[in-house]
């Protein structure tokens, strides 16, 4: 019944207002993409032939009467290919009204830090970013708005990606317990190699925090750390104050999982810490667990080159499906192991691939490289010798390189990127 | 007639979606040691950094009826610390001061030419109100009489809720 | 787009505040002759869009200039200085052109020039006071191919802010320009006011029509020349600041009807054009010539000129200053091409609507590259646009796309190429893209006109134009300035020395700190104090100071060496400056 009344009112109202001069004709709150914005401009153009609205321009300011955002009149709209900027009138509490319409639409959000006197709000979601800047004129603050306070609303419509890689977050499973195993290191004057589950994660580093989840494939894990004298001062022995200690913690609850005993280091030999820990996860990736042992593969070098060549070709051909297929399993497993359901992670990852694709016009492969075998030969990593990396993408004033852990699924004859 | 239909239209269009701003207003004086802050402020966005929770939307924050710009909650060795930042209005200061005097009586007071500090302490809370005063720094002599300084801004308004 | 808007502005200029108070036939002819090379189709198209432009414009005009008469509160009044001739800046103005340069670019078969002053004051022209006017007249253009042009160049604009068209696309080396300043030497003052609304001057009449609040409206006989200045006064005789004005051949109330008349006329023309009433452009021009002068507006025969002024205050009287006697001063200066044409086989780029054309130093088209725009020369035969680098293959007359990371042109004519990445070695090629030299370099650094190739182990080589490399022993760092044939360098111990432009270490590594030379002198630190030395490292002065503050500059922009927070200073000759 109530709906019927609303409908009735709506009809009456529209018959009334559509012949008035300051009707609410163009509602920006209904617009959800650049294409729809263009359509709205076309409509404005059609209905306002005298005003010379140009629907083809990619930067224009429109000041037509009848523009509004969910009922809040908009004085001017600056429309570009990258954003839409709406400015309200300095009348009738427009800032308060616009803030409240946006909060009704998007929910309450924190006041953002601002360098100016404006009060800023941000809303972000998969389709758009909105930024509201409240300009106080005769108001004091949000609890005491003045009638002349106005607002600027900047809207960025995001492209929609249908490619699976950009929508990974929809596939991520969440669990009650989602451990994130982190290796925290405190060390002085030494470098170390870290080998997790027989995979060399890093060599001769002094970085102090490592995310371990990406290299876990089952409930029991082994970790080996080799501490070596830092060669910074040319010495081959440990400094007398050198020490090393490490802890594996579960970052989801900040509880320690395994201590690696604090030790003073001395002598010139590397010191090896070797231990096991419970690496229970609610999800284990297939990863390289079904991979073939590549240690005796005579064609391995060719296969590595073939894989990077395939990647280079896919990028230059701007073959989005092929790029997706090359990286999907890696990105899915890594995001799942992070239990990350944020839409931005997958989107950013995808846009990073797109950036390589749009900026490059050439790729160069390393032909001479060293192969490192991990986890019984199932997982390999390569070190380029004749180039700075395995694959180099070049554009005008642009370069990017890639290098990944590879494996070969059993029954296949092709390598795949897995980390 | 037209205005009426417009009004009806808007109430019907937005009425259901509109946020209940009044219902979200929280009185900071109601908070006790036992209050679960996140539950108490449910629905209001906050920032959390190093286990300090900050609310900064003055539309929802009141302290004895005075509009509050920002409030932070944190835990310390002696209890739950509430840091209140009102807007720097003399009237607000007078109102808060009068209310605190009325509720907790004469405070311990320390007055200088540039600052006044009041401190109240009860079994379960400790309140500190201090403000900066207007005017040039005059001679640093201690004055016997009450300083007739003019309110400049709030220095701090802190409540420590003690565990009983 | 440019073309479409052509007719409208011309008509408007004739309508609105033009300096001459009536339109003479010469101007009309000039306007009509602009249509010479247009086809009827083009004219038709322009006319159609102009009529709709004009319609919206006249709508805007209807209400814009009649309604802001207001009474200004005394405390809101703004005043200005009483008119006087100030000639004090003229001397300086005449000397501001000692180092003028221009940039020459080429577009659509025309040269575009923009001038700038390359001296310390400002790159723009000095402001001259009231009653002073200035004019530039080009006399001679020296083209790079030897041609010297004097004919019909006097109308080219010497503009210090915008690109202006300077005729044919041929590289210019320099231009001789006459700069003439004309200033009012003596003037008459004519006053009209509410009490004395009419005045006679020089056989003409000036009469006040209306004065209300901040607004005043008066007329002048067409025979009178325009005043140098008009100032409004309030009741107390204070000079008011002007906020707006309108000068017109037509009385204020008739403006709208003028627009209506012109619009009606344009519409009639439009109709005729659309009905194909004209055989060709010439016939259309003939028709214009016969008819345009029939318009009432162009026959402004009321004999008076209308002036409306608005002030920041309530205006009661006006003073009109008429020039009685004037004086000129002029100088001739030479402007030089900022980027002169060096190599005789260089080509330069001209953008046209659909292609990039490469021209030689005679302005002849050598290669036309269809579909390219935004091409810029990097050096030699290498070009770039937003997305790519190119090599110009002159024999095949085509651009070859180079898929590389970066291309750097060096002053000795060599080209450095980074094939794949930022952090790799430069490969050297000639300006014809032929690999040259046996070494590749981590960095290429240019100081003065010397090119240094630097390897990853910090070895510095001097590269000549044939990419022969000469190691400079011991040098691990080259500073970025060459002066007095000295370049500051340092070694692995961070001791500073100097090499000459041939790469010879002429002052050994012995200083803890040093500055580059200027006027044959500099400050260096060794044995704990700063010494002033000449270019042969001879110590001229031991300042006995262990800390140098900064360099200052004297009135002639010469260096001052300052020590001990400015308490002890030496001039550029190394003489102690007495307090």
Task: Based on the model shown, name its key terms.
heterotrimer; B: 164 residues; alpha+beta; 22% helix; globular; C: 579 residues; mainly beta; 3 domains; eight-stranded mixed β-sheet; five-stranded antiparallel β-sheet; 38 strands
Brief write-up:
The complex is a heterotrimer of chains A (419), B (164) and C (579). Chain B is an alpha+beta fold.
- Average pLDDT of chain B works out at 81
- pLDDT < 50 runs, ≥5 residues of chain B: 1-17, 140-147
The radius of gyration of chain B is: 20 Å
Strand content of chain C: 35-45%
What is the terminal-to-terminal distance of chain C? 66 Å
Distance between the termini of chain B: 62 Å
User: Quick one: biggest sheet of chain C?
Assistant: 8 strands, mixed
Kindly report the greatest chain-chain contact and the residue count on each side: A-B, 26 and 26 residues
Q: Number of DSSP strands of chain B?
A: 10
How many strand units of chain C? 38
Count structural domains of chain B.
1
Number of domains of chain C: 3
Report the structural category of chain C.
Answer: mainly beta
Q: Fraction of residues of chain B in helices?
A: 10-25%
Report on this structure.
- The complex is a heterotrimer of chains A (419), B (164) and C (579).
- Chain A is an alpha+beta fold and 419 residues long.
- Chain A has helices spanning 2-17, 34-47, 94-106, 300-316, 320-337, 343-359; strands spanning 26-27, 59-62, 67-69, 72-80, 84-88, 111-112, 119-124, 128-135, 150-157, 181-188, 190-196, 199-205, 209-211, 220-229, 243-250, 255-264, 271-278, 362-365, 369-374, 379-384, 391-395, 398-402, 406-407, 416-417.
- In chain A, the strands form six sheets. In chain A, strands 1, 2, 3, 4, 5, 6, 7, 8 and 9 form a nine-stranded mixed sheet that branches.
- The longest helix of chain A has 18 residues, at 320-337.
- The termini of chain A are far apart.
- Mean pLDDT of chain A is 88; it is low at 1-22.
- In chain B, strands 1, 2, 3, 4, 5, 6, 7, 8, 9 and 10 form a ten-stranded mixed sheet that branches.
- The radius of gyration of chain B is 20 Å and the shape is globular.
- Chain B has helices at 2-14, 21-24, 37-40, 90-104, and strands spanning 26-27, 47-49, 52-55, 61-63, 66-76, 79-86, 108-111, 115-121, 125-133, 151-161.
- Chain B is built from four helices and ten strands.
- In chain B, strand 5 (66-76) and strand 6 form a beta hairpin.
- By secondary structure, chain B is α+β, with helices and mostly antiparallel strands.
- Chain B has one domain.
- Chain C folds into three domains: 7-64 and 253-299; 78-249 and 300-341, no CATH class; 484-579, no CATH class.
- In chain C, strands 1, 2, 3, 4, 5, 6, 10 and 13 form an eight-stranded mixed sheet that branches.
- In chain C, helix 2 (25-33) runs antiparallel to helix 6 (281-292) and helix 3 (40-64) runs antiparallel to helix 5 (255-274).
- Chain C has 579 residues and is mainly beta.
- Chains in contact: A-B, A-C.
- Chain A binds chain B through residues 2, 5-6, 9-10, 12-13, 16-17, 20, 70-71, 100-101, 103-105, 108-111, 140-144, and chain B through 1-2, 5-6, 8-10, 12-14, 17-19, 21, 43-47, 56-59, 67, 69, 87.
